[in-house]
Amino acid sequence: MSSLSAKIQDVFNEPACDKNRNKDAKARKQGCAKPLTPGAAAGGCAFDGAKIVLQPITDVAHLVHGPLACEGNSWDNRGSASSGPTLWRTSFTTDLAALDIVMGQGERKLFKAIREIKEAHAPPAIFVYSTCVTALIGDDIEAVCKRAGEKFGLAVVPVNVPGLAGSKNLGNKLAGEALLEHVIGTVEPDDAGPHDINILGEFNLSGEFWLVKPLLDRLGIRVRACIPGDARYIDVASAHRARAAMMVCSTALINLGRKMEERWDIPFFEGSFYGITDTSEALRNIAELLVRKGADRQILDRTETLIAQEEAIAWKKLEAYRPRLQGKRVLLNTGGVKSWSVVHALTEIGIEIVGTSVKKSTLEDKERIKQILKDDNHMFEQMPARDLYAMLSEQKADIMLSGGRTQFIALKAKTPWLDINQERQHPYAGYDGMVELVRQIDLAIHNPIWHQVRDPAPWDRQADVKDELPGTKSEAATLHAAEEFAGPTAGDFGEC
């Protein structure tokens, strides 16, 4: 665990983070994440964060060294899509039981599992994940992986990120460290070119990256490695020969981009493929970085031509939705890159943002939101379920965009809801993705079901009609009428 502690301290001391640079040495060691509450899930553990970053590498076998419950179900559990191999969606675990732990059979069982995977599937690499149990009993997965790699002639990568190490976001960053230490730079490509780039922090949720890659192909730009979305091990291993990189989610992998720039002189910028303007700006930045690294300047002209063509097509499609969505109010309950990129995308077509969550956003993300909304009152760190429900039931928003965990709040408030997180079924990146996002919002808001669920129930309507019929007034209404129309009493005339 001493090496793990050193890695955690190194991740916390992140010079590429403006907020972290302004801290003193003691504050940097504490990191940016709030300490976990004992007994609380806190949105996922470090092991979960590591699996999120590494599992979309599609031709790799992902082996969890620990009890069965730590693995769960890998099949379609996050929404990342693959254009080829499906091995990454198969669950592999050593399934440690109480007797294995007591008898010290963990390392032996791990070595046997690696051999069985090699014989049955012959993957180019096996990623081995430690868990809380194996970390506590002291299994040396790094030594086992090194020995197995030598024995079986394949890459066996230790991912020493047990859940007890910290939060999910810390696990994201430690997974990037594992790639830097054991994978990236281990293969020399024979086809490196001046237009090779890396895309970092792109998970290809619902196939989103497939809407962007054709644009890069038309510009003659080759994606050397997309980490981790729809990646192959050989691509990640040779990612150090790219000329430039785009960081999609700095919250997860800022340390990977910064260290690749330091080691292999690969400049990177943070951008977004959500929205028309942000997509165009991302393509321009990629082209400019490549020119700075020696590419032909003609790529700048090709980029502007492509942007003009695609923007014209997208805006023409969006014009049909503008009258229907102009002034509609959206509550965005998500985080990370979506907290500002989706905000910018929606404001482009006249949608009003009444609030956006910044719980998982970096300081840079928050600054972007302030620039877009011109008001930080629409930003909230965390909104309890009762406050979300109150806001929606009072019709302060026409629709909520969030993850699946909060959909039932919107449904209880009889408010349209659209999934914007990893479980979604539609891709929203790029020009076509923006049109699809607007189309889905329009379908959700104008779905006739909302008028039906907001109407009184049939039995309530019947009761109202019954009260209005002659001779069928309720008891309270009858008493009120009797008091109102009763004749004068003796007291009304005074004493005689």
From TrEMBL:
* Assigned keywords, A-Z: Nitrogen fixation
Which InterPro entries does UniProt cross-reference here?
Nase/OxRdtase_comp1, Nase_comp1_CS, NifE, NifE-like
Q: Which Pfam families match?
A: Oxidored_nitro (PF00148)
Query: Per the record's keyword annotation, is Metal-binding included, yes or no?
Result: no
- Domain annotation Nitrogenase/oxidoreductase component: ranges: 45-443
- Report the family membership: Belongs to the NifD/NifK/NifE/NifN family.
Top-rank lineage group of the source organism: Bacteria
Biological role stated in the UniProt entry? This protein may play a role in the biosynthesis of the prosthetic group of nitrogenase (FeMo cofactor).
A GO molecular function assigned to this protein is: nitrogenase activity
Which pathway is recorded for this entry?
Answer: Cofactor biosynthesis; Fe-Mo cofactor biosynthesis
The protein's matches in Gene3D superfamilies, at most eight in alphabetical order, are given as: Nitrogenase MoFe cofactor biosynthesis protein NifE, C-terminal, Nitrogenase molybdenum iron protein domain
Q: For this chain's UniProt record, which GO biological process terms are given?
A: protein-containing complex assembly
**Which protein is depicted?**
Nitrogenase iron-molybdenum cofactor biosynthesis protein NifE
What organism does this protein naturally occur in? Mesorhizobium waimense
Q: Does the keyword Oxidoreductase apply?
A: no
